[in-house]
Design goal:
41% helix, 278 residues, 11 strands, alpha/beta, Rossmann fold, 3-stranded parallel β-sheet, 6-stranded parallel β-sheet, single chain, 17% strand, binds nicotinamide-adenine-dinucleotide
C-alpha cells in the first residue's frame, strides 16, 4: 500500500503560517485582499470564485469579485484592470480564463501589474520563474507540487522526474521549479512516444495532462512517487489523470484526487497574496 500524500494535511500546515502572517499585516493596518476579474457567467468560474472566497476568508484574506458581462469591450476591461492595479485595497489580481473570444488574452495578462500577479501570468513573473529568481510569484499549482513533496520529505535532488504536460500554467514552470531542486527532468506531452516506457523508469511522475486514466499500472514501478495534478469530471465524479485504484497498490507514494494538489494550490495562492501585501 502506498503512502498517501495528503494535500489537505499540507494545506492545514500552510494555513497556520498564513494566518500568522495575515494577523501581523492587520496589526500594521493592512488587510490582504484579492480581486478576481470575471467576464461572463461560466459555471466553473462561479464555482472557483465561491471556493476561493470561502478559503481566503478562512485565513482572514478578503476576496472581491469584479464581474463584467460577456459584452464588455477589451478596452474597457483593460481600463478596469488598470484601476485595480492602482487600488491599494487589492494586493493580488486573478483574471478568470477563458475570456470571451473578442478579447485577446495576451493583452489582458500583460495589463496586470507584476507586483499583483499572484497567479504568475505576466511575462515578467514567468521570466523570473525560468531564470530561477527567488523574488517572483510562482504559478500556484506548480509550486503546490513541489511544496507537497517537500512537506513529505521527498528528496528531489538527483531524482529522475517525469512531468506529463507542457502548458505554461503547470508543466513548464513545474519543470523549472524541479530543476531548481536539482532534479533531472523530462517533460512529456501529447506527442511523446511510448509514454509508459518513459514514466515507468522515473523516480517521480507528475501527471498534468487533463486525461483521465493516463497513468495506469504499466506507467509505474514499485518505487514510483506519483503526483496527480489532473482535474477531470467523469460521470459526475472528480477524478485525476491517474487510475488511482489500480496504481495505488503498486507504488510507494501517491496523491489522491480530490484532496491532493488542488487543496495545496489554494494555499499557495494565499501565500502569494500575503507576500504581495507584505
Ligand atoms: P493544458 O490542456 O493546457 O495542457 C495539457 C498538457 O498535457 C499538454 O501539454 C498536452 O501536450 C499534454 N497531454 C494531453 N494529453 C496527453 C496524453 N495523452 N499524453 C501525454 N501528454 C498529454 O492543461 P493544463 O492547464 O496544463 O492542466 C492540466 C491538468 O491539470 C488539467 O486536468 C487541469 O484541470 C489540471 N489543473 C489542476 C490544477 C490544480 O490545482 N490541481 C490547476 C491547474 C490545472
Amino acid at each position: 500500500m502506498a503512502l498517501l500524500l495528503n494535500g489537505k494535511e499540507v494545506a492545514r500546515t500552510k494555513k497556520d503560517q498564513i494566518i500568522k502572517r495575515v494577523d501581523a499585516l492587520k496589526a500594521r493596518g493592512i488587510s490582504p485582499a484579492l480581486c478576481i476579474v470575471m467576464v461572463g457567467d461560466r459555471a466553473d468560474s462561479h464555482a472557483y470564485v465561491k471556493g476561493a472566497t470561502k478559503a481566503l476568508s478562512g485565513c482572514g484574506i478578503g476576496c472581491h469579485l469584479a464581474h463584467f458581462p460577456e459584452t464588455v469591450g477589451e478596452q474597457q476591461l483593460l481600463e478596469e484592470i488598470k484601476a485595480i492595479n492602482q487600488n491599494p485595497e487589492y494586493h493580488g489580481i486573478i483574471v478568470m480564463r477563458p475570456v470571451p473570444a473578442a478579447i485577446r488574452w495576451e493583452t489582458i495578462e500583460e495589463a496586470i501589474s507584476p507586483a499583483k500577479d499572484v497567479d504568475c501570468v505576466t511575462v515578467q513573473n514567468l521570466a523570473g520563474v525560468f531564470k530561477g529568481d527567488a523574488g517572483v510569484f510562482y504559478p500556484c499549482t506548480a509550486k503546490a507540487v513541489v511544496d507537497t513533496l517537500d512537506h513529505y520529505g521527498v528528496e528531489m535532488q538527483g531524482k529522475n522526474v517525469v512531468v506529463i504536460g507542457r502548458s505554461l500554467v503547470v508543466g513548464k514552470p513545474l519543470a523549472m521549479l524541479l530543476i531548481k531542486k536539482n532534479a533531472t527532468v523530462t517533460i512529456c506531452h501529447s506527442k511523446t512516444l511510448d509514454l509508459d516506457r518513459v514514466t515507468s523508469r522515473a523516480d517521480i511522475i507528475v501527471a498534468a495532462a487533463g486525461t483521465p486514466g493516463l497513468v495506469g499500472p504499466a506507467s509505474v514501478n514499485k518505487d514510483s512517487i506519483v503526483v496527480d495534478v489532473g482535474i477531470n469530471m467523469v460521470d459526475g465524479k472528480l477524478t485525476g489523470d491517474v487510475d488511482f485504484d489500480r496504481v495505488e497498490p503498486l507504488v510507494s507514494m501517491i496523491t489522491p484526487v480530490p484532496g491532493g494538489i488542488g487543496s495545496v494550490t489554494t494555499s499557495v495562492l494565499m501565500e502569494n497574496i500575503v507576500t504581495a501585501a507584505e
